Every structure is written in structure tokens, then in C-alpha cells.
Amino acid sequence: MRRPWLSLVAATAALLVFAAPTLACGGLIGPNGAVNLLRTTTFAGYHDGVEHYVTSFEFAGGGGAFGSITPLPGIPTDVVRGGDWTLQRLILETNPPEAAFRLSVGAESAAADGEAEVILETTIDALDITILRGGGDEVGLWARNHGFRLPPDAPEVLDFYADRSPIFMAAAFDADAAAERGQAVGDGTPVHLTIPTDNPWVPLHILGLGKADGELVEADVYLLTDERPAMLPNAGAFAESAGLILDHSAPATDGLLADLRSDAGMEWVPAEAWLTKVVVDTTAGELTYDLAIDASGAGAPSPIDAGFAPFGPDPVPRAPVALYLLLAAAVVIAVPLLLERGRTRTPGGPPLAGA
Amino acid sequence: MGRIGLVVAVLVVGMAATACVASPRTVTITIHYSGFDPTELAVPRGVPVTFVLVNEDPIDHEWLIGDEAFHEAHRTGTHAIHGDVPTEVTVPALATVETTITFDQPGPLAYVCHLPGHEAYGMVGVLTVDG
Lengths: 355, 131
What we know:
The complex is a heterodimer. By secondary structure, chain A is α+β, with helices and mostly antiparallel strands. Chain A has helices at residues 10-17, 86-94, 97-103, 136-145, 154-162, 175-180, 254-261, 320-345, and strands spanning 40-47, 50-58, 65-72, 78-81, 117-124, 127-133, 167-174, 188-196, 201-202, 216-225, 230-232, 244-251, 274-283, 291-294. Chain A has one domain (10-318). By secondary structure, chain B is of the alpha+beta class. Chain B has a five-stranded mixed beta sheet, covered by helices on one side. In chain B, strands 2-1-4-7 form a four-stranded mixed beta sheet, with no helix packed on it.
């Protein structure tokens, strides 16, 4: 588990991922003809070498089965139903109340031929969750053989992640079962994964799975770390990130930490921590990277975890304004120097070459 | 000389007959990351061509070849599986499928995967039937 932390991503992103197994030409489209992707919210807490990843699968109505696949930084030691208010409380912490109100919302088995190995299986409400270990082809084949209809970019995206971490979470959501359980549209099923790892990592590239290059990707990522984290791309830094907005970065308040700690499975929340909120607001074609995090305080997030090296996409594009500023700065510095140099040379300066 | 002449004549006629029988050709098309390779092909008219379709992806694909009207019909089609018609083939994940087609008319044709989103993603190739 060289890879740090966590990942986040998931679930929501997941919406994107797969669709009803009964639809021959399904892709990302469900039995009712459409999948509405809502803004996703994910929480990645990191303390004492353990990542706590909490995400929510929201029931958006309709019927049939939908699913998602999320890359993970390591093998979870536990996958349970998340607390009831962790995500909502985080939103409340960083959003005005009005906005917050609107937003609130087994055992290992041998792998079949060519399929990924099943490490863990569990059911949470109407969600069937499977933790898989394998390469991109193996995970893709497992998903295909279990009713997930992967979009055409899935083979490349799965390889993008499997080359770095062979652990994935597949979540199949049965909307019919959710309706039978009395879940109403907008009800979410939180899932909490506990993942020992040595540094955080949040998959973002997969949020564009199944989307056209120009389609918008929106997500909120909350980080709770012992130290102020260093990130790559450096969200919020002027001209150093594209599509990532540092929406909140401050010591977590005592009230927030107490509220989080009182939720189910959140007793691990420390007495002091740093809260970061990163808003993803870009297009699928631009979101070619992940969010690497160094929570140790050393300030060295991994380019590999970000997907920049040794393989992966080109570095995140820098805003042209940065280049203009550099040129302007060069002019501001160079002009006075040249003028000064010319003034001192005028009468008594050395002869020009060839003079 | 008469007997030799007869043998020569038989050989010449035999060779000519052989030349008139079109020998089948084999073309391999690889599918990787939801893309065809190659994306441009040329085959002669009237010759059986065997297409070996190698799917390296862990997801299913289709290989359907025809003119624009053919593809327009399939863009809104509902066939879950293809295979009964040589020009309409489903290639399962990580599998290899062969199909043999004799093109009787010259002209350009396209081969496309019509699973949702695949054509837009770029799963398109062009085959030219030489006259």
C-alpha cells in the first residue's frame, strides 16, 4: 500500500459508472432512460495512518439497478454503513445554512477465470458492495460479468488506476429494493470505509467516466487531516490548478469535531484537526488527474498519486495569466536595469565591440 | 511435339483457371481502449475477406460494417447481440471473433461499434472496396 490514502471518490462518481444490467445497450443509462448525476460529496479523514472514507449513494428515483466503481488506495479493513450526519454536518460547516439545506442530502473468494479477486462483500441497505483486487482487465471483466455496463472509456480509466493500486470498490444499487425499503427520492445511504494507508489520495479522474470531454464535473471533497495538507494539484493556488477550488482551509472547529465524533463510526476523530474543502468544477476532458495529498506536514504530495508520473496525462494546465504575469515581471525588472546600464555607459563607457 | 504441346496447353489452362478463383484474404482488426486498429482498410471486390476481430478490452464491443443507411438504422437499433449476419458481429470482452464477407460492390463503407456512446467515443473505421 504505497499509496496513501484515500480516495474518495467514489460513490458519486459512481453514478457515472455503470448501469442497469438488463439494458442491452445500456452504457450509463438506466432502465428509465436517464441517470441524473447529482453533485457528489465525499469525506476523506486521515488519522494515525488510517483513512476513513465516507460517501453517500443517493436514491434519485426510478427503478432498476445502477452501480459504480471506485478506485481505492488500499484494502479496507472495514466497510460499514456510515453515520447519519457526517456529510451533512460538513456541508453545514462550509456553506451558508440556506445552501446547506438544499444540498443535504465477506470473505475472500477465488477469482473466476480472468476476473478480479473478490476480497470483501457486504450489503448496506439497498447497496451490494464488493471490494475487488486485480488489474484493469480483471476488474472490468468482473464488472461486465456481474451486470455492470461499462462506458467506452472504462478500459483506459481502469488501467489508469490499476497500474497504481489494484483495489476497487464496486457498488450495485438496486433502486427497486430501495423503493421497497421505503427510501424516498433524495435519501442517501452513507458508506464508511476504513483503509490503512500511508498517505492520502483522492481519485478525481474517474469522476469523468462515461462523460463527453465537454461535460461538467462537479464535486465537493472534504479532507480532515492532522496537519494542514499539501496537495497536488495545488488546489486554490494562483495559476497552479485547473478546475480545483480551495473553498475552505482552516483548523476544524471544536464544534465540528465534536459533532463528527458523535456520529456512528466516527469516534476516531481527533481533538484537533485541519479541515479542507476542495471544490471540483471543471470538464471531464480537463479532469485528467487525481488529488495527491501529503498529510504528514512534509509538503511533498506524490506526482505519481496525482497521475502525473511516471505515467498518465500531461501536467495540469496552467492558466495563461501566469505566463503574462511572468512576462510583466520580467519587463518590470529588466527595463530599469537596462536603462541604468545604458545611463552608466553613455559617455565614459567602454567602446562597443568593433568600434 | 504434339504431346508436349498438349501438356503445355493443359498447364496454361490450369494456371488461368487458378488465377480466376479469388483467394480469400485475412485482415486482423484489434480493439483496444475502445478504438479500432487499423481505422482504414482497403479490400478487393468479389474476394472473400476474413476479418479477425481481436477485442483486448474487458468490455463488449460490436463490429458492424455497411453504408450510411445501414449505420443509421443501427444507431437506433435494439439488437442486444449480433452474430447471425456476417456484417454484424458482437465481439465479447477479451475475445476473438472471425467473420468472412465478400463485397460485391465497390465503394467506401464504415465499420462502427453501435453500443451506446462507443461511436461518439471514436469506434469508427473506413473500409474501401476497390473496384
